[in-house]
Amino acid sequence: MPRPDPRTARKAPDGTLPVPLTGVVPPLCTPLTPEGGVDSAALRALVRRLLNAGVHALFVLGSSGEAAYLSDAQRRTVVRVVTEDVDGRVPVLAGAIDMTTARVLDHARAAAEAGVDALVVTAPFYTRTHPAEIARHFRRVREGVPLPVFAYDIPVAVHTKLAAATVLELAEDGTLAGLKDSSGDEASLRRLLAELRGRGLLDRFSVLTGSELTVDGALLAGVHGVVPGLGNVDPEGYLRLYEHARAGRWTEAAAEQDRLAALFSITDAGPEETMGRNSSAIGAFKAALHLLGVIDCPATAAPQTPLDAAAVQRVRALLERAGLK
Q: Which residues pair with 226 in a beta bridge?
């Protein structure tokens, strides 16, 4: 099986996680059975497909993995299945995402026991939280579980935009190993990268973009890699984009980014009048994986609305246009 590129995989003190973590890190979808259980066989098939493509790491229990919809037992199943199947071939990052520090620590300990290499943690949510409290949250997680912690900046889900000052403080004191930026605020990300570079932190603090549509620009600005939900469907496309960018072939990178942007239209396949945008996006990823023969069932977790037949046909047409079907 492919391993992380040795030119970029300098080891962290724990001996496993490259520092900084670079490359293409797909956030795994969680295949489900028609009854709503975790489909372990399909999850293994997806893992092997991505490993065979040559991805640099895997991220489980993020937004694309429907972590917010899974029970604690289902989350543990996902982490166990993936870590067993990966068997150390690439780093595995696990989302430890919940409303409070105590619950995040429970998820983090379970993930650590399963053998993951790093944790991905949002700010606390449900109640309004001060930046000082957010910093304390990350510190307590880092102190409570001896694994690298990546901050997950996703204000659309947790209703808090991580302040640059907080990220910089936690990067400098070693609390955070990196950032997954899904804020959609490209200007803020660019300013943060400039500040990290000025402080000499980009050689030990990983910045990963979660935006499928602006990867070429983010790599040019200095991010280390990408965490693309669409990478479940077309990992090879993101790997080509990453390699073009790393080699300075920006014209080729832009062309690949344009192709992927067109394919990303699958996330709009579901009709807005009957389903939420998250249901449409996750449903489209799973429909695509089902059409490609990777998973047996395209079901999404309740109460999300499934794609109807017309939406699945739109996904099929876009796969064909992208050369994938």
A: 24, 209
Distance CA 325, CA 320 (A): 5
Q: Which is nearest to 26 in space by CA: 110, 91, 113?
A: 91
Report the C-alpha gap between 279 and 214 in whole angstroms: 22
Domain boundaries, the chain: 23-249
Query: Which residues are designated catalytic?
Result: 152, 180
pLDDT digits (tens, 9 = 90+) for 48-88: 999 999 999 999 999 999 999 999 999 999 999 999 999 99
Question: Which tokens hold the place of 165?
Answer: 């000052």
Closest alpha carbon to 215 in 181, 188, 176: 181
- Helices 309-321, 277-291: axis angle to 10 degrees equals 60
Residue recorded with tokens 């070693």: 174
Predicted TM-score (pTM) of this structure: 0.94
pLDDT at 155 over 80: yes
The fold of the 23-249 domain, in CATH, is TIM Barrel (3.20.20)
Tens digits of residue pLDDT in 281-294: 999 999 999 999 99
